[in-house]
Amino acid sequence: MNLVITMSRRFGTGASLIAGQLSEKLNIPVYDKAYIEHELQENNFATEAEVIRKLAEKPCIILGRCASEILAGQVNVFNVYVVADKEERIHRIMQKESLSYEDAKKMLEQNDKARADYYNEHTGKVWGDVNNYHMILDTTKLGIENCADIMVRYFKKVEMI
User: Fold this and answer.
1) How far apart are alpha carbons 154 and 119 in whole angstroms?
2) Residue 63: which H helix or E strand, with range?
3) Where residue 115 sits, what CATH number does that domain have?
4) Fewer CB atoms inside 10 Å of the end CB: C or N, the chain?
5) Number of other residues whose CB lies within 10 A of the CB of residue 76
6) Residues in CB range of 129: below 8 A, 6 or more apart
7) Among 95, 96, 83, which residue's Cα sits nearest to residue 11?
8) Range of the domain at 46
């Protein structure tokens, strides 16, 4: 099957690491905001939605960009939402960005708000609504290192891969 995984996430959850691990395990590419914006500019697409639909013609993982909504209704699309406790996210951002607690907290809150606003503006829906996803992974409880394996085991069990 032409499996396309969309991965929405809260800032600082480690979702990009999970996507990278999943990419290696399934041997499929990961596309993020930077890649999609590059394709938009370089290949004369009219919208990000057009880029996403084109990328989804082949197996891939798409991070964010409302891909779950853009590809809604396609049977080969599996939507994942990655979360983690706020304190853990703040500490992860502190380490990754070499920031103070307050600066990391501010960065987290700004990013989450921007993502929520972007999602609402482009879909009319509430970002993070559990009804929009097939699977929710909590990296605080499951560990970043386990999430890709959990998905691979699930995809094998239901014969998606």
Assistant:
1) 27
2) strand 60-63
3) 3.40.50.300
4) N
5) 13
6) none
7) 83
8) 4-144
Q: Is the residue at 156 inside a domain? A: no
Tokens of 91: 């500490």
The amino acid sitting at 17 is L
- Tell me the pTM: 0.94
Domain count, the chain: 1
SS3 29: coil
In which residue are the tokens 């394996």 written?
149
Which tens digit of pLDDT belongs to each residue from 113-153? 999 999 999 999 998 898 989 999 999 999 999 999 999 99
Q: Are the C-beta atoms of residues 135 and 80 closer than 8 Å to each other? A: yes
Give me the count of residues in the chain. Answer: 161
Whether 119 and 127 have beta carbons less than 8 Å apart is answered as yes
62-106 pLDDT, tens digit each: 999 999 999 998 999 999 999 999 999 999 999 999 999 999 999
